[in-house]
Amino acid sequence: MESPVIVAIDGPSGTGKSSTSKAVAAKLGLSYLDTGAQYRAITWWMLSNGVDVSDTEAVANASAKPVIVSGTEPVGPTITVDGEDASGPIRTQEVTAAVSAVSAVPEVRTRLVGLQRAAAAAAPDGIVVEGRDIGTTVLPDATLKIFLTASAEARASRRSGELKGAQSVQATQDALVKRDAADSGRKTSPLAKADDAIEVDTTDLSLDQVIECIVTLIEEKRAAR
Ligand SMILES: Nc1ncnc2c1ncn2[C@@H]1O[C@H](COP(=O)(O)OP(=O)(O)OP(=O)(O)O)[C@@H](O)[C@H]1O
Ligand SMILES: Nc1ccn([C@H]2C[C@H](O)[C@@H](COP(=O)(O)O)O2)c(=O)n1
Question: Nearest 5°: phi and psi at 30?
């Protein structure tokens, strides 16, 4: 029997990690894990439970409390916090504005990295895991590591399409760049490309082209085993 294939997909915000990872996993019959959703979920719990997210010690002390469960089916990934569906609330502007501060706290990262490694170990045929530190820290022995990039302009224009004009493209771009700087600048496992990751610049590629490129790279890795 073939050993499970583990794919790490990292990169800055809005480069297409979620859309690409879900589609690749669905095409190849693999599980899928959105680790950003887990950082958002713990942030939502902190905000909902009156924890001051700028107080590192308070966040660290509370980090073991929420029960976070991720469903890894790529066509319908789920996330619950203390048994409650969190898929909507974790996408609010309030959570987006606070998530970088919470995810910089080492105790939060230790807790979630444990969940992420457990999910990868439990995936029967393999998994596509997306985030910021998957190739560098969470799954350093992944079969394939991809680092997605795209220009700030392309990423802002993609996100603005989703927000349907609720925010100007420039404001969206400023927020993306600010979050990337915080995620890249933190001490504990910052957003970074692993030395052995393949960089794919998606600025001028359609989503289908990116998906095809990564499926091909996985098939090449499988054939070489
Ligand atoms: N290659 C592409 N061309 C055009 N649009 C794309 C491409 N890839 C993704 N998109 C679109 O860009 C938006 C952001 O994509 P997605 O949510 O997958 O990015 P992400 O890297 O996971 O972002 P985040 O880190 O903020 O969660 C989505 O609307 C998606 O449909
Ligand atoms: N492996 C990860 C995944 C995510 N984060 C943090 C940093 C992001 O700004 C935030 C939200 O992620 P998104 O939903 O935009 O993918 O979560 C991290 O630190 N490490």
Answer: -105, 165
- pLDDT tens digits, 49-62: 999 999 999 999 99
143 labelled as ligand-binding? no
CB of 16 closer than 6 angstroms to any ligand 1 atom: yes
Q: Do the Cβ atoms of 126 and 7 come closer than 8 Å?
A: yes
- Which of 143, 112, 103, 141 has the alpha carbon at shortest distance from 126? 143
Distance in angstroms (rounded) separating the CA atoms of residues 109 and 111: 5
Give the tens place of pLDDT for each residue, 175-219. Answer: 999 999 999 999 999 999 999 999 999 999 999 999 999 999 999
Query: Which ligand 2 atom is at minimum distance from the Cα of 99?
Result: 10
Structure ipTM: 0.98
Residues in Cβ contact with 135 at an 8 Å cutoff, skipping those fewer than 6 apart:
8, 10, 142, 145, 146, 147, 193, 194, 196, 197
Regarding pTM above 0.90, the answer is yes
Question: Is the CB of residue 151 below 6 angstroms from any atom belonging to ligand 1?
Answer: no
Ligand nearest to the CA of 188: 2
**Cα of 82 to ligand 1 centre, how many Å?**
28
| 5-224 CATH choice from 3.90.180.10, 3.40.50.300, 2.60.40.1510, 3.30.565.10 | 3.40.50.300
